[in-house]
Amino acid sequence: MDIRAQVSMVFHLDKCIGCHTCSVACKNIWTDREGVEYQWWNNVETKPGTGYPTLWENQDEYKGGWEAEDGRLQLKLQSKIGTLGNIFYNRRLPTVNDYYEPWTYDYEHLFNAPEGDDQPTARPISLITGEFMEIESGPNWDDDLGGSPVYASNDPNVGSLTDEERTQLNEIERVMFFYLPRICNHCINPGCVAACPAGAAYKRGEDGIVLVNQDKCRAWRMCISGCPYKKVYYNWSTGKSEKCVLCFPRLESGQAPACFHSCVGRIRYLGVLLYDADRIEEVASSPESELVEAQRGIIQDPFDPEVIAAAKANGVTDGMLQAAKHSPVYKFVKEWKLALPLHPEFRTVPMLYYVPPMLPVLAKMKDGKYDVADAEVEGLKPQLTSLENARAPLAYMANLFSAGNEDIVTEVYRKLIAVRVYKRAEKVGDITQEEAQEALALGNMTAEEAEAIFRLTALPSFEERFVVPPLAREVAIEQIESPYDRKREGGFGSRTAPGRRW
Amino acid sequence: MLDDVLFVVFPYLTFITAVWVGIYRFRNDRFSYSTQSSQFLENRMLSWGSAPWHYAILTILTAHFVALLVPSIWASAISAPIRLYILEVTGLSLALVAVFALCVLVYRRLTTATVRSVTTPADWLLLALLLTQVALGFWVALFFRWGADWYLHTTVPWVVSLVKFQPDAATVTTLPWVVKLHILGGFAIIGVFPFTRLVHAVIWPISYLWRPHQVVIWNKKLTRTSGDGPR
User: Fold this and answer.
1) pLDDT digits (tens, 9 = 90+) for B147-205
2) Residues A307 and A452 in one domain
3) pLDDT band with cut points at 50, 70 and 90 for residue B221
4) Mean pLDDT of A370-394
5) Which of A256, A379, A433, B123 could bond A260 through an S-S bridge, CB–CB 3.0 to 4.6 Å?
């Protein structure tokens, strides 16, 4: 056993209202500089939709992530020799048109325009060239466009759906969409790190945060292709790749990352997971239908004395172990099995998990009564217990969160429904106790579990949502260099501004 | 006198500049060691420029260096006329590819507004020097045939004399002016190398081949002793 700690995340999609506050908080802190204007380390996508950059999920085109052939794990992009061969021209690189050309507006014209018959306008100006431009796309171009024949229909996850299911997605009466906020998954088998020939992309051993060393990055651009989530971005100005840093300076001072802290819907949870690094390759090369289960399996019980001993032997600190015991992520992912990885079939073993959204069932008013469409049974029961009447096909959710394994998604929904039915029976009382018990049995859970899930979902405090471990890097670093010498010789922080000088 | 300046002082000067500034820059501003790739901004023309350019120029440069480092092997390799023909034709075609590809790259930088806006004066200087140099090289290959052979008896002894610190430019001073310009152009590029994005040429990431895929960096020495240990 090679136990390591990983700062991990859960996003509860049912609570996301699509307000983009997370994106703005992130942008204000990290990406308001030249060269990174188009980079949204945190973005919120509408699903079904084409995402950002456009069609990022289509790995036939982008070749991100890994593939397992005969149980052997290989980068989908190319072999190591292939990397050096293709280094002069990367065929799989998304270009600025797959994102958008960043712009500002000619605001001055509003003040300086000569007097005339018409109101002056502020024309868009490209932030790259400084010239006037036409805006053709933007960071949220398909926001809220569920059901759109241009965006929703071209969602790569719709590909394997049956005609019936497709109709279900796009029929105007049944149109649905939900939001998918995305940041770097800080994978434990990261494609970006593996693809970087310069060794600039790396994973921090102590907390698992994936970073790009700006001094080592040489703009070979393979990380962008290697990451199937397209969460490494190229800074066109400095010639360096940049990515979500999970606000490590905030984490190191005990604060939650900016996007977590600012989340209006309080959908985000952060906590430590312990995992067995010896099994990374085995897990990542599992057969597709077993990937989710394998990924759950690599996560270790923080209360198991054997795991604790192995973790301590590996240098995991007591503070980290303590945080792991209180981790909301552990509860959602391992204990309750409610949170699923996004696209586990990319085989990077992402450490950001999603509780899939409970979408409303199709219902209509009939004779003054609210009836679930096509359900034989009257009343609330079918609305609460029937998955078949959900507006989103299960197959679609399975394509997103369980590599197509519908059983896993169904299991999650049964649990989510059970919590709802149980709490409704208790609080509103229009559902009988038998029905509540039936729902719990279907969800394979106890009343206590349902209560705990309800509490952590609906009523968690700030400290319950974000269990930030004491990273103690300022102590740890003393083992490899003396902070006092370093301060005297080098001063603090970066000594040169990031930009072109030569 | 002029010949001494051009073929003794200039080569030493440019070479020392390249090494000294190159190391200084690597030690003090490692951040700036980047290819400054603009593929993100323009993709289509780059595919016709970048890959052919790099493959052609690297092969040509390799030939230059092999003949320089192991002249005896090179000499025996071209001893049969048929092999000399093949080598000359290959060299000429590669030079043509390099000229074409570099023209594409220059055209791309001139005509694409986004790429033009990330181009510095140093980039233009480098492009101009490279274009002149490959054009001259192509000219030499075309009109001063059997360069694979006479290179061994003119440039090679001169460079060897420079390396041995017993400079003797006699073998190159009598060469035609086009060839001389090609030689000087080469050293001019070595001279500007550390001041431009050309520094990326010396950081080609060959170590990727034997590095494990995953890079894990610990902030402290591990107490764990069994197994391979995390890397």
Assistant:
1) 999 999 999 999 999 999 999 999 999 999 999 999 999 999 999 999 999 999 999 89
2) no
3) low
4) 65
5) A256
Q: What is the mean pLDDT of residues B70-98?
A: 94
Q: Which domains does chain B have, with CATH numbers?
A: 2-209 (1.20.950.20)
Residues 63-102 of B with CB under 8 A from A: none
Cα→Cα distances A437→A320, A474, B194, Å: 38, 51, 74
Residue A74 sits at the chain B interface (C-beta within 8 Å): no
Q: Identify the domain boundary among A303, A336, A357.
A: A357
Number of domains in chain A: 2
The pLDDT of residue B20? 97
A117 in any annotated domain:
no
C-alpha span between A200 and A209 (Å, rounded): 14
Residue A8 lies in a domain: yes
Q: Assess whether pLDDT exceeds 50 at residue B227.
A: no
In chain A, what is the straight-line distance between the N-terminal and C-terminal CA atoms, in Å? 48
| Tokens, residue A94 | 């998304």
- Between CA B103 and CA B49 the distance in angstroms is 8
- A72, two tokens: 């052997």
- My answer on whether A189 and A322 are in the same domain is yes
Hey, is the C-beta of A277 within 8 angstroms of any chain B C-beta?
yes
Of A131, A203, A240, the CB nearest to B34: A240
Tell me the average pLDDT across A217-242. 97
A321, A418: one domain: no
B38 touches chain A (CB under 8 A): yes
- In terms of domains, do A436 and A309 share one? no
**pLDDT per residue over B14-25, tens digit each?**
999 999 999 999
CB neighbours of residue B55 within 10 Å:
16
Task: Give the B window 102-161 contacts with A, CB below 8 Å.
Answer: 113-114, 116-118, 120, 122
Q: What is the pTM of this model?
A: 0.93
> Structural domain of residue A75, as residue ranges?
1-100+146-357
CA distance A378 to chain B (A): 56
Q: Give the whole-angstrom CA distance, residue B155 versus residue B77.
A: 18
**d(CA B41, nearest CA chain A) in Å:** 6
**Chain pair A-B, CB pairs under 8 angstroms:** 169
Instruction: Kindly indicate the confidence band of residue B224, based on its pLDDT and cuts at 50, 70 and 90.
Output: very low
Domain boundary among A420, A437, A458: A458
Residue in B closest to A75 by C-alpha: B213
Q: Considering chain A, what is the average pLDDT of its residues?
A: 91
Measure the CA–CA gap between A290 and A395, rounded to whole angstroms: 16
If asked whether residues A312 and A197 sit together in one domain, one would say yes
- Residues A171 and A215 reside in one and the same domain: yes
pLDDT value at position B230? 41
Per-residue pLDDT, A492: 66
Same domain for A295 and A251, yes or no, is yes
